[in-house]
Amino acid sequence: MEILSNEAVIWFIAGAALLLLEFVIPGVFILFFGIGAWVTALCVYLFEPSLAMQFLIFSSTSVLSLILLRSFLLKKLYKMPDPVVDPDEEFIGGVGECIVDIRPDADGKVEFKGTSWTASAGTEINPGTKVRIIRKVGLLLEVEPA
């Protein structure tokens, strides 16, 4: 067990344990303390600093790596899709069903995504007809037969 008397090995093992613990505890947080422990192990191996200096190296590298790298890693690991610029755009091109007569001179109703919407069209559309949404203006859908 002479190998465990070497401080660099102890810091290295602590870093490996922290990195493995990151797989158990989600959040991409403990990883940076593992990095700090490995940087400390390298410094202890190369320079043999005092115990107080080792803890200073560990804490400073852990916090610095946490501050500088966490947001970058979270963006890379959990890449989010680009948000929809205009929420109304998700309606355009959608297909619904006419549930109340739509005439050029009078609005009717369509069902789209389980919700009833007021709709207008340039042509007459009878109930049961599939419609395609051309445009959304406020709460009014402009449709055409699909």
TrEMBL record:
Residues 89-145 form the NfeD-like C-terminal domain. It is found in: Membrane. Pfam families: NfeD (PF01957). The chain crosses the membrane at residues 12-39, 51-73. It is a multi-pass membrane protein. Its main location: membrane. Keywords: Membrane, Transmembrane, Transmembrane helix. It comes from the Bacteria. This is NfeD family protein.
